[in-house]
Specification:
By secondary structure, the protein is of the alpha/beta class. The protein has five helices and five strands; from the N terminus they run E-H-E-H-E-H-E-H-E-H.
């Protein structure tokens, strides 16, 4: 299984759209949809949005619009987001994974699996190109 660990703030929204809690920037969603289509990857929320039911539901609904679904979420643990991702991957058959985030608190995962987005702009074409290389 290929997995995309997805942050929301700074990825599917940005400073440019005032960190919209409605995820109104369609280009970000379209780019993520392109990545999913090209890789058959599954989405796992690593965003703080995972713990807020209304925001998580919004994300799940937006993912349906790009023909994908959220298959899970990382647990909130002490330490870094990278440690939460490693915890989620335990005992799972992961072929490849990418982390799409605007923060680099991923421990050693940063070197090989992180696509660091610019929180001013959110997800961009060049980010998707990097993610494709990591997943494939």
């Amino acid at each position: 299984m290929k997995v995309i660990f997805l942050d929301i703030d700074g990825v599917l929204n940005s400073i440019n759209d005032k960190f919209s809690q409605t995820l109104e920037t369609q280009s970000h969603l379209d780019l993520l949809g392109e990545l999913v289509k090209k890789t058959n990857a599954k989405i796992v929320l690593s965003s703080s949005w995972r713990g807020i039911p209304s925001l998580r539901k919004l994300v799940e609904n937006k993912m349906k619009l790009i023909n994908t679904e959220v298959i899970g979420a990382t647990r909130s643990l002490p330490g870094t987001r990278g440690s939460e991702i490693k915890d989620w991957m335990k005992d799972k058959d992961i072929e490849s994974f990418v982390i799409i985030d605007d923060d680099k608190d991923m421990d050693e995962l940063t070197e090989t699996n992180l696509v660091l987005t610019d929180s001013n702009k959110g997800l961009q074409k060049e980010d998707i190109e990097k993610a494709l290389k990591i997943l494939n």
